[in-house]
Amino acid sequence: MKATCHCGAVELRVTLVDEGLATARRCDCSFCRRRGAAAVTAPLGGVEVVKGSDKLAIYQWGTKTAKHYFCSVCGIYTHHQRRSNPNEFGVNLGALEDINPRDLGDIGWVDGVNHPSDR
């Protein structure tokens, strides 16, 4: 699958886990609830930056385990290496080409507020 930021400066080639779009989830941690994007799951080797690696910026905080990537030109979050499983990426569902998150119906939530790493 192809994923892009809004301005097109960043393009990813994404291979989702077998469950594909059914892995779509939202998170209520302090960062994700502000960002608002649902994410789908890709294995660590399932995200390839096709173009724009020089335009990708990274944001980390707290434990610095998760790495949140976004386009430094338009600001769109593209993907993140997960804190809950550093062997996975969460990919912005809205950045996937030809996918409208609304078409998936209700998307479940992950309890990021009570993450085990925060205890």
Topology record:
Elements: E1 2-4, E2 11-14, E3 25-27, H1 32-35, E4 39-43, E5 47-51, E6 56-59, E7 67-71, E8 77-81, E9 88-92, E10 108-110
What does this structure look like?
- This protein has 119 residues and is mostly beta strands.
- Helices cover 3% and strands 35% of the residues.
- The protein is built from one helix and ten strands.
- It has a five-stranded antiparallel beta sheet, with no helix packed on it. Strands 1-2-5 form a three-stranded antiparallel beta sheet, with no helix packed on it. A two-stranded parallel sheet has the order 3-10.
Which oligomerization state do the chains in this entry correspond to?
A: single chain
Helix/strand-derived category reads mainly beta
The major sheet is characterized as: 5 strands, antiparallel
Strand content: 35-45%
Described by the principal axes of the CA atoms, the overall outline is globular
Number of strands: 10
Distance between the termini: 36 Å
Helix content: under 10%
Question: Strand sequence of the main sheet, in spatial order?
Answer: 4-9-8-7-6
Succession of helices and strands: EEEHEEEEEEE
Q: Number of helical runs? A: 1
Uncertain segments of ≥5 residues (pLDDT<50)? Answer: none
Overall mean pLDDT stands at: 92
